[in-house]
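Worked Example 4.2. Consider the chain below.
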Amino acid sequence: MATGNNFMPPHSRFLDKSFNKLNTRNYVMSALFDVSGFSISIYDPDKNKIIGLVTYHFEELNGAEEINAQLDHFLNTVSWLSFPFLKVCIVYRNNLNTLIPLPLFDKKNAALYLEFNHILQQENRIFYDFIKHTDAVNIYSLPMLLFEKVKTIWPNSLLKHASTILIENLHVLVKNKNDNNALFVNVTKNSFDVVYFKDNKLDFYNQFQFKTVTDFIYFLLSAIEQLKLNPESVKLILLGNIDKGDAFYEIIYRYIRHISFIKRNDNYAYSYVLDEIKPQMHFLLFNSLQCE
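Applying the procedure from the previous section yields the following structure tokens:
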């Protein structure tokens, strides 16, 4: 169990001056959970504007009990997050997921599909998302203790896996931009996702765990080779926890010339308090607002 010495204050908190904690019933909240932190966004549908962002980071935890303890402390620190909201979307990120073609999917066999690639823990529960606009189902597991905790705090919340939100939103972007040659890389603290579409259809998705910059570039170049793409011509679009000047960007640039960062979804307005945050940061969180 985590102790008081392990608790950290929110890494950042950005709230628009229009935000009113007594008005949460009129806001939509999205929350992204993983083993190293929580990120919360607040959306005001009346203004079609994202008006808040709260992030809370900690050292990687072991087990649902430690995550729940951190969540309790987080909610004690920012108590209004447990108030009733118009809508709550919970996004969970881990590497215990697998994609299955829709024609082959049978919900009775969901655990069997997942066991092909992962060791399932008895205390975990199996979930699945039908990925919009694709013929695929995303099967995943998360700790039952965490699921019960979330449902106790936000009883009417909707649950999605992070990769579901990522694939759905990138697919919309590709279709709107008619950009089939782009390879998307979403970077987090110790893993990254690679997503590729061909002829407006999902062609490749995988998540890679890494410990070093060398691991990172090895897995990325291996994925590019597997897709038979040319590093000299492929257009790489970055999102997540990466920026110009950091070690990951610099090593990518050694091998890949056409690099850009994803832009924010212009279907939403964004509060001035978010101006200092790079557009590629929190892309997944900000685009989980319409989860269904």
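The helical segments are 64-77, 110-115, 144-153, 162-177, 213-226, 247-255, 283-286. Residues 1-165 form a domain with the Nucleotidyltransferase; domain 5 fold (CATH 3.30.420.250). Compare this with Example 4.1 before moving on.
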